[in-house]
Amino acid sequence: MKLLIVAATLPEIQPLLSAFSIGSDSAEKQIGKHSVTVLTTGPGMVPTAFSLGRHLATKSYDLAINIGIAGSFDFDLTLGSVCLVIKDTFADLGAEDGEEFLPLDQLGLGTTVQSQRPNPGFKANQLKEVTGITVNKVHGNELSIEKAITRFNPQIESMEGAAFFYACNQSDVSCIQIRAISNYVERRNRDKWDISLAIKNLNETIINLLEE
């Protein structure tokens, strides 16, 4: 299977690159039964959508896989746990009307909800399925966290997921998103985060999936 693995930053995917001697943004690398290409986009929705759109305009894949770390609204998800994001939402794309938030859908200007399009030939269904939101500004304020939970009832948040799904869906490319939990969504306190564990578990998971 011809795979594109997409990450926002190099550290999130470095263990995978090291394990298979892959250069970042490399040519195709054979891993097991798969031909793998890696694309690092830069963090955030705009770099992700632009990089993917440019890349997919000239190349085709059987499946694109977005991997990265994420914050969790769900305290039942332990730090370091690896999840499959099946639905993602642009959380701050819309308009304010006083205290009310009007998503793009309600304005009649498009859709904010983006979903995975799995390829049956690549099995990742052993991972816990979650829903996410994609944000330009990660939550760290109690009031805004409460509003996000009320509006979307998300389990995780990232800065790229919905943009990744959007670019793949617009390019008619099958896509899945795999995230590892690095922190809980609460008042910002990096002493309580475990980014190294999340990256370790994330990369071990994708390596195992590629080798199966």
Folded structure, characterized:
The structure is a single chain. By secondary structure, the chain is α/β, with parallel strands linked by helices. It has one domain: 3-Layer(aba) Sandwich (Rossmann fold). The protein has six helices and eleven strands. The strands form two sheets. A five-stranded mixed β-barrel has the order 4-10-9-5-11. Helix 4 links the parallel strand 9 and strand 10. Helix 1 packs across helix 6. The radius of gyration is 17 Å and the shape is globular. The relative contact order is 0.24. The model has no long low-confidence stretch (mean pLDDT 95).
* Mean pLDDT across residues: 95
- Supply the CATH class: Alpha Beta
Any idea what the shape is?
globular
What is the spatial order of strands in the main beta sheet?
4-10-9-5-11
Query: Beta-sheet strand percentage?
Result: 25-35%
Q: Helicity range of the residues?
A: 25-40%
Order of secondary-structure elements: EHEEHEEEEHEEHEHEH
